[in-house]
Amino acid sequence: MSSRSRVLAVLGLALALTGAASGLMSAAAAADPATAPTVSPIDSVTVVSAGFTAGSAGEELSITVDSSTPLTSMTAHLYATSTNADTLDSAMQQASTGPQAGESSWTAPVGTLPLGTYNVTMDVAFPDGTQMPGTPAGTVAFQDTPTITLNVNSVLSHGNQDPVISGTVTVQAPGATIGSAYADQPVTLVASGQPDVTSGTGGNGGFTFSLTSPQPGETFYVEVPESMTVAAARTSTMSLTAQSDLVRMSASLSASTVRYGTKVTVKGTVTYAPGAGGFVALTGQAVRIYAGTASGSPVVTAVTDGKGDFTATLPNEATSVHWLLKASGPYLNTATATLPMKVSLPTVITGFAATLSQSWQVNYRGCLGLQARVPGSIPSLTGLTIQYAERPGGPWHKLGVPAATQKSFVCGNDGRTFSGTLPAQLNYAYYRVVYAGATDKAGTGYLSSASGTVLAWKYEDRITSFAVSARTVHKGGKLTVSGRLQYYLSKWRDYPGQPVQVIFLPQGSKSWWYIAIVRTNSAGLFSVTFTDPVTAIWSAEFLGNSTHLDTAAGTIPVRVTQ
Question: Where exactly are the structural domains of the chain?
Answer without folding.
Answer: 16-142, 145-242, 246-344, 347-457, 461-561
